[in-house]
Amino acid sequence: MSNDTHIRSGRIAVISGGVGAARMLRGLAAAVDPDRITALVNTGDDTVLHGLSISPDLDTIVYTLADAIDPERGWGLVDETWRAMGALDRYAAIRPPDSQAAPQWFNLGDQDLATHFYRTARLQEGATLTEVTDEIRQAWGVPIRMLPMSDRRRSTIVTVTADPDAGGEPRDVSFQDYFVRLRHGVPVSAVRFDGDAELTPSARASILDAETIVIAPSNPVVSIGPLRSLDGVDEMLTQRRDDVVAVSPIIGGAALKGPADRMLVELGHEASVVGVARLYAEIASVLVIDPVDAHLSEAVEATGMRCVVTPSVMSTPAIARRLAEVTLESVAGPGETVAQ
Ligand code: FO1
Fold first, then answer.
1. Tens digit of pLDDT for each residue in 238-294?
2. Same domain assignment for residues 207 and 317
3. Which of 47, 137, 206, 277 has its CA at 20 to 30 Å from residue 58's CA atom?
4. Which residue, of 192, 211, 239, is where some domain finishes?
5. Are strands 155-163 and 169-174 parallel, antiparallel or unpaired?
6. Which residues contact 188 (CB under 8 A, 6 or more apart)?
7. Residue 125 to residues 119, 131, 139: CA-CA distances in angstroms?
8. Which has the closest alpha carbon to 217: 178, 180, 256, 184?
């Protein structure tokens, strides 16, 4: 790191979704002591299939920080095999028409299954998701702290205007139904969050104790939205607004991965850094955007956020690290030094 940077030395809380957050966290862990970092992770995507408790965003972050993620897909393990999924064919052939058994639309790799076996068994033994997540993190040697946003259920429910598997009728579906079964290819008219979840005490403390709070470049509606929907979170962030910096997941009007751009438009927002700024202006004081959007800096600042421009497409670890450094510098005053 160059000597003229100004990065604070305290704890960093990172409000995180899946792929974009995982890459940002890898950059942050390279830029500062990983002990300082806590990822607060979306669990609105979590699902139960084959009786297994699956937490995609938690696993994407673990596998990315363990350098075990499949780099093409951005989820699941590299060098994965799919024999168990293939073996489900036998049962799909005899499954009664009203049964949901042996679903094959959601791909669980042979090695990935071990993570879901472990999580499911530990939850059934009475462990909390917070405890199990820490165990899985340790098993993979992930050096940052990871906290699910809640130990209770808060599920993202997407209203699709037409579900081809339900006669083309509008329907409320789970997030994974929308994202994987429907390949996020159908228009969305609403998103809501279901369940009685509360922010865990440790997740709450991680926000209160953090010197800097980063909102990762994740989908503002379905990845950051679930955490913001929990009681008191927006109020806490608003109070800490000067210490909160968001990184835009929209670059040049498009999401690098996933349906964030289309979804923003379908839900009445703008698919641009300005649209992102409007969603975050109350809770964050800085928005980090890519140079491709530099011409929109003034419009971002008109929302009340400070705008910082730096390469944000994390195509290499070096770019992710630099993005992390610039993000942290953006909330540190010139008098504040001490890096790493
Ligand atoms: N995404 C897909 O597009 N297709 C899949 O079959 C799929 C399986 C899957 C299994 C485990 C896991 O942790 C993630 C998986 N994902 C899959 C990704 C997941 O749907 C998304 O990453 C998130 O939920 C969105 O952030």
1. 999 999 999 999 999 999 888 899 999 999 999 999 999 999 999 999 999 999 999
2. yes
3. 277
4. 192
5. antiparallel
6. 158, 159, 160, 161, 178, 262, 263, 266, 267
7. 10, 12, 18
8. 256
Residue 130 lies in a domain: no
Looking from the CA of residue 60, the nearest atom of ligand 1 is 13
How many domains are contained in the chain?
Answer: 2
Give the residue whose CA is nearest to atom 25 of ligand 1: 18
pLDDT tens-digit readout, 117-171: 999 999 999 999 999 999 999 999 999 999 999 999 999 999 999 888 878 888 9
- Whole-angstrom distance between the N-terminal and C-terminal Cα of the chain? 9
- Are 294 and 323 members of one domain? yes
107 lines ligand 1 (CB under 6 A): yes
What's the rounded mean pLDDT across residues 68-78? 96
**Does the beta carbon of 178 sit less than 6 angstroms from any atom of ligand 1?**
no
Q: Enter the pTM of the model.
A: 0.95
What is the Cα–Cα distance from 148 to 84, expressed in whole angstroms?
A: 28
Q: Which long-range contacts (CB under 8 A, 24 or more apart) does 302-308 make?
A: 303/274, 303/277, 303/278, 305/246, 305/277, 305/280, 305/281, 306/330, 307/273, 307/277, 308/245
Q: How far is the CA of 196 from the centre of ligand 1 (A)?
A: 24
CATH assignment of the domain containing 305 = 3.40.50.10680
Question: Domain for residue 166, yes or no?
Answer: yes
